[in-house]
Amino acid sequence: MKKMLFVFNPRSGKGLIRSALLDIVDIFTRGGFDVTCHPTQKPRDGYRKILEDGMDYDVVVVSGGDGTMSEAVTALMQLPEMIPVGYIPTGSTNDFAASLRIPTNTLAAAQDIVDGVYFEYDVGQFNRQRYFVYVAAFGIFTDVPYETPQDAKNIFGHAAYIAEGIKRFTLGSYKGMDITVEHDGITETGNFLLGIVSNSTSIGGMKVPMRDGVYFDDGLFEVTLVRTPTTPIALQQTLNDALLNRLTTKNFLSFKSAKVKFTSVEPIAWTLDGEAGGAYTESLAINCRRAIKLIIKPDDKTDQQQEIDSKTPAQPADTNNKYLHTALFEDQNGIEI
Ligand SMILES: [Mg+2]
To answer: Has this prediction a pTM greater than 0.85?
Structure first.
């Protein structure tokens, strides 16, 4: 039998997993898995468990919210081999699941894992030590999580996020951040209200209608920064552009890139997948292409992804994790950029 480590947050989504747990384990067992259950005991416990024991299993399945999945991915990125990971979402926002069209019904999600195929998904590496699976963001209200995490998660969005951020801005209330942005040999400076580095079609439950399409395995982030408006007219234009998803006007800096660096005099406070990510004067986001092996149902790829796959040969199943590194999740010091 294949060995499965099933890590779940028993408190996520008001304990949603509890009533379904027996049926979920039954689905996995009937599907040919020898299941080891690990209810997480505290924050970062899922991370620790997967980091310590992940290599002993053929498959890891995670259940919880986006934060639980983010922890799991951070651990999986540090293992010497890519261990396939399935996800049963039970959190409040579940952007990652929505982006991948993973069912919110726990039993359906479990069955999809049993029937599933592997999909190699891009992971964001942040300052060479942390990881994010769908979004890294900073700005006018991304410092809110330090005080009220759930509110921040619920308002997190991309077009929605940007519009919300601008709505909260009143002229003179916030000086913005002077930031130098470097990507693809281009250096741009500006004063910005907020910024988002994402690899997701859903943030805050909102679809992300990027003009050129969003691909989960193209090695590229979608990056958008909002310039700080200095006049009432600029403020209104910026808000209108955001509401209409016109993110390429002069009010924004918007591009796709595999690697982007942000430099500022004042530290920028980041959130990674909706959780506090630390504050830095230098921040580097690198797209680790096809770095984790997600288990998704066979028909879950979009036509766009299938088109990309047809152009790019799949990697062999036993590919070593080329993004292996040894820094600990908690270690915030000694970053080399
Ligand atoms: Mg992408």
So the answer is: no
